[in-house]
Amino acid sequence: MKIKEEIATILLETGTEREAVIPILQAIQKKYNYLPEEALREVCKKTTITPEQIMGVASFYSQFRLKPVGKHMIRVCVGTACHVKGASLIFDALHRELKLTGDEETDASGLFTLEKVSCLGCCTLAPVVQIDGVTYGHVAPDKAGKILTDFLGQKGKKAKSKIRNTEGEKIEGEIRIGLGSCCVASGSESIREAVEETVSNNGLQINLKSVGCVGMCHQVPLMEIVPANGVPVLYTHVDPKDVKSLIEKHFNPPTLLKRLSVRAQTLIENIQDDSRWEGVERYTSDVRERHITSFLGRQVPLATEFRGIINPLDINEYKSREGFTALQKCLTGMSPDEVTREVLDSGVRGRGGAGFPTGKKWEMVASQKAQVKYVICNGDEGDPGAFMDRMLLESYPYRVIEGMLIAAYAVGATKGYFYIRAEYPLAVKRMTAALQFCRDEGIIGPNILGSGWSFEVNLYEGAGAFVCGEETALIASIEGKRGFPTQRPPYPAVEGLWDAPTLVNNTETFALISWIIRHGASAFHSLGTAKSKGTKVFALAGKINRGGLIEVPMGITIRKIVEDIGGGIANGKKFKAIQIGGPSGGCLPESLADTPIDYESMAELGAMMGSGGLVVLDETDCMVDMARYFLSFTQKESCGKCTFCRIGTRRMLDILDRLCTGKGKAADLDELEKLAGWTKKGSLCGLGQTAPNPILTTLHYFREEYEAHVTGHCPTGKCMDLITYTINDKCIGCTLCAQKCPVDAIEFRPHEQHDIIQEKCIKCDTCRLVCPTDAVIKR
Amino acid sequence: MIELHIDGIKLSVESGTTVMEAARQLDIQVPSMCHNGDLPHFASCMICMVKDAKNGKMFTSCTVKATPGMEIITLDEEIREARKTALDLLLSDHVGDCDAPCQISCPAHMDIPRMNHLLAQSRFEDAYNVVIQDIALPSILGRICPAPCEGACRRNSVDEAVSICFLKMYAGDFIHQQKAKPMGNFAFSDGVPASAAMTTLRGSRVAVIGSGPHGLSAAWYLQSFGYQCTIFDRNPLPGGALRYSVPRNLLPEEVLDLEIERIKQSGVIFQMNAEIDPERVKELEKEFDAVVYPLEKPLKMAIKASAFGKEAAWETRQKLSGQPIIGEPKMFNSRFGKLQESEALEYLKESVPGDRIEPANGFTHGMTAEEVVAEAARCLHCECRKADDCLLRIYSNEYQADQKRFQGPERKPVTKQFQHDTVVYEPQKCIKCGICVRITAKHQEEFGLTFIGRGFDVVIGVPFSESIREGLTHTAGEAADACPTGALARKGGRK
Ligand SMILES: Cc1cc2nc3c(=O)[nH]c(=O)nc-3n(C[C@H](O)[C@H](O)[C@H](O)COP(=O)(O)O)c2cc1C
Ligand code: SF4
Ligand code: SF4
Ligand code: FES
Ligand code: FES
């Protein structure tokens, strides 16, 4: 009875059409935490949705759960950046900690459910674990248990927001807090609370402002203090505990002197307190001069113009920075054809991966004679090591909207969709709000900006399927189907959503449009290389000193990115390779680092620009393991429709598994290469066609590493089954390793040299990490 | 109209025609499994790939529409290899046996499950006709064969093997007891009838040297193929080792005589006391159109000798009719090895419980009819219901696919869903072509079938916790017939 009523309420919101199935399922899951069969049956009774459809869809998208889950969800990120920093060890440790066996996901008490996710979008904090809303970064395997206790201790402690109205009072300055996902994940929310608290307690007259991602994700959380008169200072890795003292350093609240002694004391305590086990370091120096210039200096912000300055949702601020002037210009002074021509002349190519000339695509859609045409902004961004689209949607929602509106005007579209990945709740929230503000301002809806032209935009939340980034699968998904790609041609430009001509462009592509219109095609054209114009946003992560989002001109070399922008390889290790383009891309060796990056050069080398994930690898990274990692991803994400992709990727993974566990044979390498070739040729959509790239590039550039695995040796010591842990005579008998070993593989023998019982060892790396004298040897 | 070239032949087709349909207009059959009539296209199996001659790219001919000026190649080495690889991949995830393991391990490749099926229904003569297609001497071999088939019998994983050998013996003995009808009418796979009254001989004559199991069997099959056979043997009585080496208590003389008598009745001429030396062989080669020579080394196992005799008959026939000499045509076989415990229970669903039955009246007498019916019912029917018309098997055969090439580390356990009255569903044989899903949707089944999960782990199943009974209320037959594999099949034996 209860379910019936609850479903009825949900259906009132979502509607009862077949295409509403995904929103309906999302609402049900939100309500019950999973999809109870009874609820699904009820939906079928009350709508035109069939059991076949609802079951097919519910089981296709990874967001949906058909079984009840524990009270709290633990998500271990196994995205690329986290993978190279040992995410699987963390997962194993939590698995042990929760006493799960086999495929079990929920612990016996029903408190926690453990799952793997691909990229939480805070790669610079890798490895990352998220429990419900709390994100833990830089997690070490031996700290798994501590995370759980910490989380349980944290619960319910949420402070109340105490925002203070500063209207009409004298402003002494501004405090900007980063609210990009990385910042939020690293705790900027609690910084915000601390700031609010300090500000209200001290009676300061300060503007508190949230800004989008500035791209310095390796330094989060960020707080910038801009005194009304004085130098602005950017603080990185801010700890909420320090907020008070930082603010007080810049502003002189009336009550300060009285409490100075107390403050000094806490400060000292903070410094000596080494229980800060998260491993997050704290900087209190003025880093703007040093870091911003080297990190941001070589970059050219177009899509990310005014980074760190504008408040993502402040429409007036966007307007004050030339926002919507490009749209205005198009609507009042340019014909749709002229707009398309301008985009064509700029030479901009699609940033979603394949690099199709955007102007050409617009022409195709524009030339279709149809009553109804659609524009879709592809914000699915499934590459497990990329987060630029997320950042653009979160930090510059109006810019993306403006780009879409211009496109819609140019191609004669009647309706637009934002398709945003489910794992990006913040982007969804921001975009929803931004769309509403635009409607309120008459920028979306009927008679836009008084031009007589009307256009409506909807937001559609994806449900977790990498393949839905592929445009035909994306369209199937909006239509309420399983995300099965279909044969192209017909291209969406001719026959897309509901069979109407549809323009699908990537988020970043749209983000570039207003700049092009404002500055003219030739300004854009003058940036970049012969065939790849303009700039590209990359998500830089992995083994570098400074990770984050960068926007650089096309044609910049790999080395410049790694060394000048990324600050070189971290921990004094050697630069080995970059992984570019995620699961569709490839691994390129250091010897090719002077290659200028553009669509052509990457494709020639067997990689792919892809959406712009750029993960830097050092000498400790195993290339066979990298290939295995990507194959396990694509294998899981294959829609399962066609033979080569569904079974071929699994069989390639089988071979890689064999190699990484010492069971490989020499003949495996040839078979792997052959199968990779067939999968490329024989798959229906881009997922299968590009899935072999990580294998083919590593086989090509690092064949000797594969050959070593055939002989049972992993040169980098990454492949667990091919290594052993031993303790040498540097051991001082401190017993730390014995205390920490989760499986008692080390006997507790104070003051004696310790020893590892090989049969018990699970190669979790804990002992090596805790040993104070580096006596634990991994071979 | 659209003009294009397929395999160098120019043709024009209506716009909207797929390349596959266009090729069919030229009578070029592009293989296809997941494509079905007017159901929407899906493009899953990838076996229909053809090549664009202009850029060398391959694509699925079932989905791509013909465009003006296309130049298509429908088969070359690369396409062949692509199709074979697709089949190798599908087979690596296809857990099922085409022929039952007993049949595969039988040297004569006798269709044991079909025999059992008929015996269990008391259709003894029909069972005999199945046996005799592969084993010329059922009564004899029923008594002396060491029964490798029983060693491979899957029933061993439940309790004990089916008494295959006694069943076969009964089938043979049954006919001999029906003196009135010494031979049943039976049809060979090429439709040539063989009966005692065979009149239409093909004109060629064959000499068969030796009257042991090899010679008898060769002569029997050649005679039934329509060649007049004459057996030459130096002994006074026919049977060779069967008569002169096998202990009489195992093989009574009257059984031997009866079985040889039947062969005589089929028209085979026996020339006894015929000393055969190299000279005489040369003469025979001149006198006859073909000669079947004895085995170089006599075989210990009579069943093997008899199987080789059948093989020799096929080769001789192929030689005489100018066909490539390949012996008895063999089909591709999908196999998956030993049963796991859970699987034995699945197989038992199709059978009856009960211990192995052996003749109560003693071995030489064989079983009673009641014993036969009960024992034959113990067969688990491990063969595929679509062994004769499964497209996966037919194409695997054509492209010489290799099931072992991509063998994974573990195989999925076999399950069999029997809830439905008329069809059986075996998900591990499914190739995920989606035809059944589209059929149930088209006919608006309340539940129907759907894809569950994605990627490698996707399965076809009934939504919610319903069974195939609820999933296929009025589309069962259509779906089973359209399923390209044995995954969905009609209940009951094969056609
Ligand atoms: C497996 C797969 C995943 C894809 N994922 C994305 C994605 O996350 N975002 C995106 O914009 N394009 C993605 N694409 C590319 C889209 O199909 C499409 O080409 C793109 O959105 C077009 O926009 P553009 O021309 O602006 O690049 C993907 C393609 C494939 C084959
Ligand atoms: S290539 Fe892979 S993802 Fe694409 S349609 Fe085929 S099975 Fe699906
Ligand atoms: S069961 Fe359905 S999906 Fe599977 S092979 Fe048969 S028709 Fe195709
Ligand atoms: S947050 Fe883990 S890889 Fe991005
Ligand atoms: S028939 Fe074309 S893909 Fe199966």
Strand order of the largest sheet of chain B: 2-1-5-3-4
Largest sheet of chain B: 5 strands, mixed
Structural class by SSE content of chain A:
alpha/beta
Number of domains of chain B: 4
- State the total count of DSSP E strands of chain B: 15
Report the principal-axis shape of chain B: globular
Helix content of chain A: 40-55%
CATH homology superfamily of the domain at 315-525 in chain A: NADH-ubiquinone oxidoreductase 51kDa subunit
Quaternary structure? heterodimer
The fraction of residues in strands of chain A falls at 5-15%
Shape of chain A: globular
Q: Please mark out the parts of chain A with pLDDT under 50 across 5 or more consecutive residues, or reply none.
A: 158-170, 254-294
Task: Please give the CATH class of the largest domain in chain B.
Answer: Alpha Beta
CATH architectural group of the domain at 315-525 in chain A: 3-Layer(aba) Sandwich
What is the straight-line distance between the termini of chain B?
43 Å
N-to-C terminal Cα separation of chain A, in Å? Answer: 62 Å
How would you write the strand order of the largest sheet of chain A?
14-13-17-15-16
State the largest interface.
A-B, 44 and 49 residues
**Count of separate DSSP helical elements of chain A:** 32
Q: Can you tell me the CATH superfamily of the largest domain in chain B?
A: NAD(P)-binding Rossmann-like Domain
Strand and helix layout:
The complex is a heterodimer of chains A (about 775) and B (about 500).
Chain A: H1 2-14, H2 21-32, H3 37-46, H4 51-60, E1 72-77, H5 80-84, H6 87-97, E2 112-117, E3 129-131, E4 134-136, H7 144-154, E5 173-178, H8 181-185, H9 188-202, E6 206-211, E7 223-227, E8 233-235, H10 240-250, H11 256-272, H12 288-296, H13 315-320, H14 325-333, H15 336-346, H16 358-367, E9 374-379, H17 388-395, H18 397-411, E10 415-420, H19 425-440, E11 456-461, H20 471-478, E12 502-506, H21 507-519, H22 521-525, E13 535-542, E14 548-553, H23 558-565, E15 575-580, E16 586-589, H24 599-604, E17 613-618, H25 623-637, H26 643-660, H27 666-682, H28 686-690, H29 693-701, H30 703-710, E18 725-727, H31 736-740, H32 766-770, E19 776-778
Parallel strand pairs in A: 1-2, 5-6, 9-10, 9-12, 10-11, 13-17
Antiparallel strand pairs in A: 1-3, 3-4, 5-7, 7-8, 13-14, 15-16, 15-17, 18-19
Chain B: E1 2-6, E2 9-13, H1 19-25, E3 49-52, E4 58-60, E5 71-73, H2 77-92, H3 101-105, H4 112-120, H5 124-132, H6 138-144, H7 148-152, H8 164-177, E6 186-187, E7 193-194, E8 205-209, H9 213-225, E9 228-232, H10 241-244, H11 253-265, E10 269-271, H12 278-287, E11 290-292, H13 302-320, H14 341-348, H15 369-376, H16 391-398, E12 423-425, H17 435-442, E13 450-452, E14 459-461, H18 468-471, H19 476-482, E15 488-490
Parallel strand pairs in B: 1-5, 8-9, 8-11, 9-10
Antiparallel strand pairs in B: 1-2, 3-4, 3-5, 6-7, 12-15, 13-14
Bound molecules: flavin mononucleotide (FMN), iron/sulfur cluster (2 copies) and FE2/S2 (inorganic) cluster (FES) (2 copies).
